[in-house]
Amino acid sequence: MPPSQPIRAARGVRDVLPGERAAWAQVEQAAARVARSFGYQEIEVPIIEPAELVERMGEDTDVVAKEIYRFQDRGGRWLALRPEATAGVVRAYFEGGLQAGPQPARLYLLGPMFRYDRPQAGRYRQFHQLDVEAIGDPSPALDAEIIELAAGWLNALGLRDVRLELNSIGDSRCRPAYLRLLQDYYRPHKEKLHPDCQRRLETNPLRLLDCKEERCQPFKARAPRVTDHLCEPCQEAFSEVRGLLDAAGIEYQLNPFLVRGLDYYTRTVFEFQHEALGGAQNSLVGGGRYDGLASALNWPDTPAVGFAAGLERVLSMMKREGEEVVPAPAAGLLVLPAEPGLSVAAAQVARSCREAVATAVDYSERSLRAKMRAAAKAGARWVAIFNREEGARKVVQLREMTSGEQAEVAWADLPERLISS
Ligand code: HAM
To answer: Which of the residues 18, 33, 131, 290 has an alpha carbon 20 to 30 A from that of 5?
Structure first.
């Protein structure tokens, strides 16, 4: 690249500019409010984790095989940028001693995740998730609770065209036999499958059910259904989850092909999808029970359930549904010195008003007319104008922009005046 080119952002990442930040804040605040209302507490875990922790979530998954940002630090340790938060939260649960506290530990986290995938609409290399986890309790009631929490949040955001899909993929007792059945069913058709599916047939047969390739669809349609091959405890757990969702008035569709992209799931899996998200990126929220993850990380066997939602996708669907959030103006009051050389006085006026209202100064040397135009564009409610003579008398002309009403106000009276009107 020629040295004179301006330096741009890395591929697949986005800036959140001030005009969008209000909508982000609304989504994050609603997440925190809904999560807390269910008794969940905020946790933060590092963005870098040992590569091994991230890789244990599923060696045969796309996320681990192709999408991890993995690097060696100066000490020769292999680290990874987290592609999701669940493994890190489980690690923190044990390392922080939460397993000795009240169970389940109900936790939520908001933050950036990183996946090296081909960027496209709704798919970024740095994106943000709301992650919610309930760790340390096997009760199917928690699966339903987690789903109700996600539904409550989407509802609070005003999203309407959302569909919940639900499945159970069994556990370590019943799944191995089902996977053998699936392999036996697919093997005679192996040559006709997409090359990815030929590989999956040997390495991760459950993912055959997730295939979107046209040529694999007829085989998929006739494949044995996982829900017909659940052991009795898994069947009972699944029917309890469904009963609780029914009682909560949460609508869902059973989808026997829903298997999810990470390996650690057992029993309940679910996704909230949005009609308009189209294509492969249609999931807003994904989650499920993952009773085997803790032991895969060499910690004691511990049941858990959770979900994560992509904030970029949630925000883009809110925008699409017209749930636009109008950003508040940066400053309610703009101080406009009308002549050069009044910066000290303008800074002093602003300093005294900030407790009352967000205040900024236009220090530029452009004309007062231009400053007024800029103040109107910035959406300020008031401007405080003064020239050298008014500065010497310690007064400003306080003007309300929409009404055009203007009055002389002493500096000392400004805060009071701004609060009371
Ligand atoms: P996931 O399905 O991989 O699950 O991701 C959850 C959500 O993150 C997706 O539904 C999507 O909205 C968003 N997302 C994923 N990848 C991208 C991307 N490249 N760009 C934009 N958004 C994306 C998990 O991450 C699990 N940890 C969920 C979980 C928590 N399961 C149990 N606990």
So the answer is: 18
